[in-house]
Amino acid sequence: MLQAVCLRGLFLLLVVRQVYMEEQCLKASVNTCGDCIKSGSGCAWCKDLNFTKAGEQEAARCNTAAMLRDKGCSSNGIINPKNDFIKTKDKPLAPGANPVQIQPQEVQLNLRPGLPQTFQLHFKRAIGYPVDLYYLMDLSYSMKDDLENVKQLGNNLLTELTRITGNARIGFGSFVDKTLLPYTDTNEAKLQRPCSDKSEPCQPAFGFQHVLSLTKDGTKFRDMVAKQHISGNLDPPEGSLDAIMQVAVCVKDIGWGNSTRLLVLATDDGFHMAGDGKLAAILEPNKETCELVKNKYSKSNLWDYPSVGQIARKLEEQNIQPIFAVTKKMETVYTELSKLIPKSAVGVLSEDSSNVVKIIVDAYNNLTSEVILAHEALPDFISVKYTSDCKGGESPSEKGKCDNVNIGKEVIFNVTVTVDRCITSQSFLIGPLGFSEKMRVNIRTRCECECDDSNQPHPHCGGNGKVVCGSCSCDPGFLGQRCECKLGQKDEASLKAQCRKDNGTECEGKGDCLCGRCQCYSTDSGGNFYGEFCECDDEHCEKANNTQCAGHGKCKCGKCECDQGYEGPACDCIKSDKDCMTDEGVCHERGKCECNVCKCERGYSGAKCKTCSSCQRPCKESGSCVECLAFGTGPFEKNCSKACNHLKQETVERLLKYDCRVRDKEGCWMLFTMTEQRGFDKYFVKVLQARECPEGPNIAAIVGGSLAAVALIGLLILLIIKGVLYASDLREWKRFEKDRKHEKTSGTNPLFQNATTTIQNPTFSGDS
Questions:
Q1: Hey, do 131-369 and 619-688 end up sharing a CATH topology, with the first three levels equal?
Q2: Distance between CA 208 and CA 191 in Å, rounded?
Q3: Listed residue (165, 170, 157, 646) closest to 367, CA to CA
Q4: In degrees, to the nearest 5, what angle opens at C-alpha 437 toward C-alphas 436 and 442?
Q5: What is the pLDDT of residues 339-387, one digit of tens each?
Q6: pLDDT of amino acid 768
Q7: pLDDT confidence of residue 533
Q8: What DSSP character marks residue 200?
Q9: Sign, Cα dihedral of 493, 495, 496, 498
Q10: Does residue 17 have a pLDDT over 60?
């Protein structure tokens, strides 16, 4: 039973693959054999002269080889180019050259776009492969005891490495930190002598200094290191990343050779990284260039510290394998750093660094026994995958990896290269990380057919063109399947009208109208526009993660056609409606489920389109339907069930509260609630059975009330007038009473006024 299911699944897979390949080949843009083989890795071209019928497009010659055979194409007529793998002859070794560890050293691939090519790379660790080791030491004051031991290790370290490889060199450099606050005390005296003990030798503060280039002379190493003195700084983190960057990029100054390159970093503290320079107002980022002037890092106080990413990239580019020899308290910090840097190791120093030789030897053995195969930056449209014959190497990955590869052991990596489209000749390098040896891979694409046709006019083309891979290539001035269309024999305006879609631009501006048909241009990236009016191309679809159709679909005529199980405008999500489902359907039937997320419509929102904050209940609009459904009256009483099928109604005797109050045609108020159902404009309506109908007017009460109101108003006016007159009389009476009272007390008539002028008769004398 299980076998039958598996066979059925395999059969379906083959059918789907066949259909997909056929769809790739059947493009309107295919006019030549070259167009055909560019359109898909499974496409073939039939060059038989009479394969296409009269009026049939040349694109019919392009299909899968199986379909072409089914349509009658001869076996010799099918053109289906395959990949070519050419192993370039390995160059003989020059006298004194390093032993070869990888084979082959160079290959040539002639690849058809979309068709993978796999070849083998053999790696075998050679005896006597040279080792370059650069010892980079922290000379801050806390490393005082360690420096004394390092001064004695030169010959020991060189002896151990020579015993293992037979060919070793060592070099030395040191670092502290930037000579700016807050990293270093900038007092002039402190800069010249940063050590706390004034009785011991101390060198001025510095960032990084290169002391000794790589050499085989252990005595010279010992003598140069013996001249070094301790220095100092303020804060615990050191400028170790500045030093590592200069050691990696100053290849000539350090003397790195064609060898296994080891960088030993000995320190007892952490490290500053990109961004820390802002504490000293250093804003310019590290530019990853060699800036040694008189063997000292000249940009230490001008450039920020490099980032961990910059360090990892530069070490990988230069095939340098770092060994972090650190104290116990720093082991966790540098272990985490090691995870970010390929081919790196961490060892714990003793209190005085006396075990540093053992750390280096152990780390070297571990690093060199792990082989990681990788490539440098790939040209556009090229992808590479690796598998190996090692344990765990069966699954394709971005890098090949093998562990426990001892000297003399050979491992085999399978390298699969795919080119997505036609490109110019390109090359890239593949090799094991930490080794300078690389294999060069040269790439050319097979995007043209080799048909060996005659260059003479052919009767098949009416003598107006020659046959190229079965189809006619017309002479200038002629067009058509058999070069039968001569310009000037037909009305040019009518021919051009056939090339305009909806009276728009001729061939959408992406092709030439020739003999009434659009001949489409190539796109900027080497593809083709296609379609009856050149309206399509396969290069301008939506992207996700900077990848067209997210890598889960094909771009067809500006739209992504997603692979099975993916959806979305950019095929960037797995097809599923699990999180969109509700008891009332997908997204409450108020939106679409895209990428397992509801895309709500018409103002609805929420995870499943349940609510609409801006939506109002359509009370007034539903009034006529409520009237006909509940009371059998109103404008829709004759076709109520049809006009109002979006409402479900129930009449109730009591309604605790209502949402809507709408008048019917009789002027009565209908009270009802509206509960939204799934979908749009669908409601369940509860209607109060009793309507609020207004009573008629009481004429007698209105007339009586009016008369009473008039009488009351008249009475009020009279009372107001009477009150005003009474108040006036009362005021006059009080004034009169006041005047009378004044006359009684003074004896003078208040109405009498004294004379203003007195006249006396001079002849009259009172004494006579």
A1: no
A2: 15
A3: 165
A4: 125
A5: 999 889 998 888 766 788 888 888 888 888 888 888 888 899 999 999 9
A6: 43
A7: 86
A8: S
A9: positive
A10: no
- CA-based torsion, 647, 650, 653, 657: positive or negative: negative
Q: Which two tokens stand for residue 570?
A: 């950019």
- Fold classification of 84-127+372-445 is Immunoglobulin-like (2.60.40)
Residue 157, token pair as written in the block: 């370290």
- For 749, the 3-state DSSP assignment is coil
Superfamily for the 131-369 domain: von Willebrand factor, type A domain (3.40.50.410)
pTM here? 0.54
Whole-angstrom distance, CA of residue 518 vs CA of residue 534: 7
In this structure, are strands 559-562 and 553-556 parallel, antiparallel, or unpaired?
A: antiparallel
Helices (H), 130-265: 144-150, 154-165, 188-192, 218-226, 240-249, 251-254
Q: What are 511-526's pLDDT values in tens digits?
A: 777 777 787 877 777 6
As given in the structure block, the two tokens for residue 160 are 């151990």
DSSP-based three-state secondary structure for 385: strand
Cross-strand bridge partners of residue 592: 599
From CA 273, how far away is CA 241, in angstroms rounded? 7
DSSP state of 563: P
Q: Where are the domains of the chain?
A: 84-127+372-445, 131-369, 543-574, 619-688
Inform me whether the pLDDT recorded for 243 exceeds 50: yes
**Which of these CATH numbers, 1.10.8.60, 3.30.70.20, 3.30.420.40, 4.10.1240.30, describes 619-688?**
4.10.1240.30
Could you give the CA distance from residue 211 to residue 222 in angstroms, rounded to a whole number? Answer: 12
Model pLDDT for residues 560-592, shown as the tens digit of each residue: 988 888 888 888 888 888 888 888 788 888 888
Topology of the domain comprising 543-574: Laminin (2.10.25)
Q: What span, in angstroms and rounded, lies between the C-alpha atoms of 598 and 586?
A: 8
User: Is pLDDT larger for residue 299 or for residue 638?
Assistant: 299
